[in-house]
Amino acid sequence: MIKSLVKFVAIFIAVMVLDQAIKQIFIDGFRWNGEYFSLILTYNKGVAFSMFEFLGENLKFLQLILIVVLFLYLIFQKELFKNHLIAFSLLIGAGSSNLLDRFIHGGVVDYVFWHKWFEFAVFNFADVIINFAVFLIILQFFLENKRLKKSK
């Protein structure tokens, strides 16, 4: 379990450091406008697509509780933690980085804005990592179910 926790913490820290470093580039003033997408700076006070923005300051505390509860659940569900270690460390690292933004900047630092053919929500590296982690978890469950069906 200690080896798994060390791996978890290493991935968690790597995601947070990389995400915060990228965000700092935009906070320091970097901008770029392209035909398909632009790199801008915005602060999202809600979650995906600005949902739950009405919760204001309470949103960050709700997210903090959710992240802590998820982590504690994983610690007690050792098999789930071990089987999805990389995905959960990516998920919790990226979620924690976005949460850190809420405490430091008052909202999540977003910067990628797709605007060709349609306008998409502005997002960041952590958002991509969160979606990738969820994809990994779902993929692992499907592959495990397929393996279990073959073994029967």
TrEMBL record:
It is an enzyme of class 3 (hydrolase). The chain crosses the membrane at residues 59-76, 83-100, 120-143. This is Lipoprotein signal peptidase. This protein specifically catalyzes the removal of signal peptides from prolipoproteins. The lineage of its organism: Bacteria, Pseudomonadati, Campylobacterota, Epsilonproteobacteria, Campylobacterales. It comes from Campylobacter blaseri. GO terms for biological process: proteolysis. Pathway: Protein modification; lipoprotein biosynthesis (signal peptide cleavage). Belongs to the peptidase A8 family.
